[in-house]
Amino acid sequence: MKIGFAGDHAGFLLAAPIKDFLERRDIEMVNYGTFGPDSVDYPDFAHRLGEAIDKGEVEIAIAACGTGNGMAMCLNKHAAVRAGVAWNREIAKLCKEHNDANVLVLSQRFVSVEENLACVREWLDAEFVGGRHARRVAKIPYVPQK
Q1: How many CA atoms lie within 13 A of 6 on its CB side?
Q2: Taking the chain, what is the end-to-end CA distance rounded to the nearest angstrom?
Q3: Taking a C-beta distance cutoff of 8 angstroms, is the pair 61, 6 a contact?
Q4: Of residues 9, 65, 78, 119, which has the active-site annotation?
């Protein structure tokens, strides 16, 4: 399995601990940047990751910024992306179980590294439950009603 990662200057510090965590599970992480603390524009890295998902380079991904919101907003502009922000492990689990999120978005500024790693674990281990949730997920690509 291969997982994409992207973060801005307020999220890149999560890349190393997440990569270590994934390697212990024999999962390869492809880092789409950024790679340092210099201020950058999060859309540049979110769109790079979103395009990788759209093209099938990676099927699932993790993104991080200060709150998680900026990356999620950009990522969700991509057709193949369902990105969910999680600030705790229960929400991370529900992102997958109820929303079939293929991107987990984390907050580096407001959530500890330990809790973020717990979110990654819960999200990876969760399964989409389908049922009524599948009907709802199918409605996500917005098509105006006539």
Answers
A1: 26
A2: 41
A3: yes
A4: 65
Taking the whole predicted model, whether its pTM rises above 0.85 is answered as: yes
> If residue 50 lies in a helix (H) or strand (E), which one and from where to where?
helix 42-55
The low-confidence residues of the chain, meaning pLDDT below 50, are: none
32: how many CB neighbours lie within 10 A of its CB? Answer: 23
Give CA–CA dist 4/15, Å, rounded.
Answer: 10
**pLDDT tens digits for 109-131?**
999 999 999 999 999 999 999 99
Q: Which domains does the chain have, with CATH numbers?
A: 2-138 (3.40.1400.10)
Confirm whether 65 is a catalytic residue: yes
Q: Give, for 20, the enclosing helix (H) or strand (E).
A: helix 15-24
Distance, in Å, from the CA atom of 73 to the CA atom of 51, rounded to the nearest integer, reads: 14
Marked catalytic residue, from 9, 47, 78, 98: 98
Is 74 a residue of the active site? no
Amino acid at 54: D
Give one DSSP letter per residue of 63-120, joined into a string: EEESSSHHHHHHHTTSTT--EEE-SSHHHHHHHHHHH--SEEEEETTTS-HHHHHHHH
